[in-house]
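INFO  loader      accepted 1 record
INFO  loader      residues=127
INFO  predictor   begin
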Amino acid sequence: MENFMSDPNFVLLYVDDPSASVRFYSDLLGHQPVDASPDFAMFRLASGVMLGLWSKHTAEPKPAATGGGTELGFPEQTMENLRATFRRWSEKGLKIVQPVTQMNFGHTFVALDPDGHRLRAFVPTGN
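INFO  predictor   done
INFO  writer      dumping tokens
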């Protein structure tokens, strides 16, 4: 039987203020979105995944939940890189809700974007 399901490569975050979120993610990611309008912006990530920021006020159907219910994962290759990302994000003023912590999958920390979406940086066990 043939599989007709496509491979998901697009993440949407519902945001309160798209222009503020574009500024935040442009600074965090180090580049501008590939598409932007007053209610929506889209970033192309190095992995090929697309990150969309959509106004929670204009999205249809209206989102039932916004920030905090999902995470964006930022894998790091080494503990040194993880610590550098922690310092950089802390210096940028990101709210850190979990400091660098060892967990069963590796070392990690979690910060929040302006809408409360979780940003998890991590080094998997074995790296």
